[in-house]
Amino acid sequence: QLQASGGGLVQAGGSLRLSCAASGRTFSTHVIGWFRQAPGKEREFVASISRSGSSMAYVDSVKGRFTVSRDNAQNTVALQMNSLKPEDTAVYYCAAYYSSLYYSIESSKVSSTYDYWGQGTLVTVSS
Asked: Fewest C-beta atoms under 10 Å: which of 13, 27, 68, 85?
């Protein structure tokens, strides 16, 4: 089970830190991804992180602004979002799938790869 939190209202240029908390003892065997869905748009990939946390992937629009990290001891993943823009406004979801040692960046960008989803947290960026 995944629980996303940390969303809210922020002005453009501001920062937010999202958190995804997972239950269960197999967290460290799962790739974690962040997706977002803006009103009237399809869900899109934002970022993913490998089992160990040593590899990450980002959608081009957030590179240099967002950072994904994980703490396997605490079963949490964070998404630090800086320099937020109005176009970042969306419901953000964390998701997980079991992975062997190989971390496929391309697979991690596809929502159908994921087995588990959190409930989403709303991020609103005002101009």
From this structure: 13
